[in-house]
Design a protein that fits this description.
The structure holds 2 protein chains of 2 kinds. Chain A is α+β, with helices and mostly antiparallel strands. Chain A has helices at 28-38, 68-80, 90-93, 111-122, 143-154, 177-181; strands at residues 14-23, 45-52, 57-66, 84-89, 96-107, 126-130, 134-141, 158-163, 167-170. Chain A contains 6 helices and 9 strands. In chain A, strands 5, 6, 7, 8 and 9 form a 5-stranded antiparallel beta sheet that branches. Chain A has a 4-stranded antiparallel beta sheet with strand order 2-3-1-4. Classes of the chains: A alpha+beta, B alpha/beta.
Amino acid sequence: MSVYQNNEINEEETSRTLSLVVDNQPGTLARVIGLFSGRGYNIESLTVTEIDNRRHLSRISLVTRGTSMTIEQIKSQLLRIVPVHLVRDLTLEGPFIKSELALIKLVADGANRVEALRIAETFRARTLDVTLGSFVFELTGRPNKIDAFIGLMKSLGDIEISRTGVSAISRGDKTETKVLEQIKLT
Amino acid sequence: MGKDNKMSGAEAVITALVENGVEVIFGYPGGAVLPLYDALFKNKKIKHVLVRHEQAAVHAAEGYARSTGKVGCVLVTSGPGATNAITGLTDALMDSVPIVCLSGQVPTHLIGTDAFQEADTTGISRPCTKHNYLVKNADLLCATVHESFEIASSGRPGPVLIDLPKDIQLTNIQYIKKPTKINKSFATVLPQIDIQVISQVADLLINSKKPIIYAGGGVVNAGLEASNLLTELVNLLEAPVTLTLMGLGAVSNKNKNFLGMLGMHGTYEANLAMHNCDVMLNVGARFDDRVTGRLNAFAPKSKKIHIDIDKSSINKVVHVDFGIVGDCKEVLSLLIKEIKKSDNIKSMQSKSSWWDQINNWRAKNSLGFIQGATTIKPQQAIKSLYEKTIDKDTYVTTEVGQHQMWAAQYFGFSAPKHWMTSGGLGTMGYGLPSSVGVQIAHPKSLVIDISGEASFLMNMQELSTIVQYNLPIKIFILNNQWMGMVRQWQELNHGSRYSQSYTSSLPDFIMLAKSFGIKGLRVDDVSSLDATIDEMISTNGPVIADIRVEKEENCFPMIPSGAAHNEMILSSDDKGADTSESGLALV
């Protein structure tokens, strides 16, 4: 408990997807993550990569959980970080796409190998590596699709998982170009 | 500087400081900042104040910044220099004080090798600065310094640290002047103030029968004009006004509508008015836990309006009906204009019954105390100090604890920026170094550090700084030989088991003063209190005044932890509210 008894109305926590544009500088990600750990917020998923190599901007896609009061607080706190230029709440803004890439290694033999390939085909997973005793599948899509795939693979043998975390973008013709153009070239 | 306008990185940094208006820098040299010290030696425009510990350098810069409104500047070396500064930086972050701190770093090729006096300074200081930099490219030095001053002073002010590897300080570069246009990508961009909201808020205030204005440090930070506007609004609405610890002086203590400080050790009338109000206007305060008490019983029947420059302060702990993000100077000016519209003025509610109620609370005289025949009551000591200095241009700093609360309760402030205290972080040892910065900024003014003997011991090495610069600071120690506030909580919450709160082995403060070649005074009888204060004030140089006060006096009134505004206790005999079990867990 950080402060005196919370007077928040008992509202349920929901999952929110935030999309941030930040300077690709040392320390920026540490500040974002430090904010979550320091103030006791959750991070369910986080991905970062540079999206503009002239302005050196990175996108952080972040999934967090909280009541609306907590989420508003998270967004305001994120905006206080100097190299954070843009904080968008995709969940609140409207329809958006969430996608993730997963690499799944399965060690299996006999009939289970046949079954694994059949499931992979159904999920449109790509087979990236094959040995006589194993496969590596690559799968993209919504996190719950990947969860389902992993669940099935688990029952077929020993598995190893590597997931990127969620990358997200809003649907429709709206872009951030105008906002980003105001950021000076470094 | 060579013919081609090139200079060393260190020289460029110092030149950039001058360009950003720095006149004084508080610091302590060391291996990793030798080039910067060399550049300072050659530069005649910046006065360097040599402190005796890096924590004190930051507190001194805070005192300088808070009493002037300028950015305070600090220079420390790598490793221990930087880690010692961390408490000061955290203090500045919590209390929104604009600071630029330059720290030395080992040369770039040694970073990460556990070199001598290497520390991950940007890593350590990240959560306790508004922003920080590690400059690895000398060509970015000038821009970084210029940016850091913008960041420190814009929006909600705060500390910025620049970590400067030694090889970068020695690299020759071209000096780049500060651009005239501020780049929006790092300056705080405030949203347009919604006129519709202003008119709704004005409406609420006009129709309120029981309003209260509760203001804090944001008003002080927004400058004198903001204080004047707040006073105008208070007078216009005939509304009661209460101030937080950080806000004292934002409205004059002589204003008839001023109810005193609110919160844990606030006045009865201020807290009861908060509890019973129908409309609360918060200007530049942040609903700190010292102020609100138990949140689920905080001003339960009120509509709440919050003006703050920091959006994250709004709806952080208390849900408000109207949140306005903006500089309080601008918001107040719009609000006053709206209220002044003739239709509005005409329909203003009478507050006479509200004031009757408030005056009944005032009649409780919650700050009353009984001064006996001999032993000095700490309250009396502050009261006498205030009365003796009321006509002077007095600046007060404090440490943290009982003496701090008594100073807030019994010393009156008629103007902003005259009261420097560690509010958010509650740093014992803040007052003495802070007074150094204040006195440097206001050499002709009376600067008093109201201290406790335990806090004083935390940064007493700064006596040496005070003597070196001949700063006529008056150190007014309320000496009760206890860590008074700890002792008080142990008495109230822990069955009087005084675990480690006795300040044993105290120095003889007169002898201590003497050893530094300054005046020491002592008083333990109330009949000599006034004479001692007179002597302290009339002394030209620095003074340590050892005021021996009642040892086990408690600071009242008090909202016990976990209690609400209307559950205050006024004295030790007042068994109004026992600390609840959940309250015991709170700090």
